[in-house]
Amino acid sequence: MGVAIRTAGEDDRELVVRLLDGAFQNDPVSGWVFPDPAHRRATHPRLMAAFLDIVLAEGRVDLAEDGTACALWLSVPADAHPANEATEANEGDEAEEAQGDDAAQMREAVDPDNERVELIARLTAGIHPSGRAHEYLWMIGVAPDSQGLGLGTALVQHVLDRCDREGVAAYLEASSARSRTLYERLGFDLLDRPLDLPDGPQMWPMWREPRT
């Protein structure tokens, strides 16, 4: 379907947070992070806002002109190649420490007593592939009343077309079996094995090679 898409900015922050909150309130992973429905309704928007602020600062948010769907993307560069194994080990330790600090800061800002806010950030960072430049689809949200109309597919394909032209891979983590099926239709394949959240649902890391 033809969908008018623009790049969102700071002025769209409130709209996009509401959109993501509505789209993911009943998502299996959101339900795992915030098991109590009342607490989820109150706190979940803060997590969506934290994710959005990172992407507004470091990536790009594609927004349907009518405000019914959005996609959060980060361009991940190829890793630098250290000169020796010692350097590589040190850099790996430093990167892991930085990721841990970021996860802890997110927990403190969103829901300090909820260790799962920090854990989900650590676990997804831990399975993120390295070594090749790629486009990372962090999140895609469609308003509940507009789901099933092809908006999500249109937003993702908008970037995948560019990936194909430029020979760039793409990566994401599917948070439900339904979304996994959608991404498979778009050319994504399961990367390694699913991530089993402790006492919770699975997430599926998925990779897409550019098409020629």
List strands and helices in order, with pairings:
Elements: E1 5-7, H1 13-24, H2 28-33, H3 37-58, E2 60-64, E3 69-76, H4 85-110, H5 115-127, E4 134-142, H6 151-166, E5 169-174, H7 177-185, E6 189-190, E7 195-196, E8 202-208
Parallel strand pairs: 4-5
Antiparallel strand pairs: 1-2, 2-3, 3-4, 5-8, 6-8, 7-8
Please supply descriptive tags for the structure shown above.
single chain, 212 residues, alpha+beta, Aminopeptidase, 8-stranded mixed beta sheet, 7 helices, 8 strands, globular, GNAT family N-acetyltransferase
Provide structural commentary.
- By secondary structure, this protein is of the alpha+beta class.
- It has one domain (5-80, 96-208): Aminopeptidase.
- It contains 7 helices and 8 strands; from the N terminus they run βαααββααβαβαβββ.
- It has helices at 13-24, 28-33, 37-58, 85-110, 115-127, 151-166, 177-185; strands spanning 5-7, 60-64, 69-76, 134-142, 169-174, 189-190, 195-196, 202-208.
- Strands 1, 2, 3, 4, 5, 6, 7 and 8 form an 8-stranded mixed β-sheet that branches.
- Strand 2 (60-64) and strand 3 (69-76) form a beta hairpin.
- Helix 4 runs antiparallel to helix 5 (115-127).
- Residues 78-211 form the N-acetyltransferase domain.
- Residues 88-100 have a biased composition (Acidic residues).
- Residues 84-109 are annotated as: Disordered.
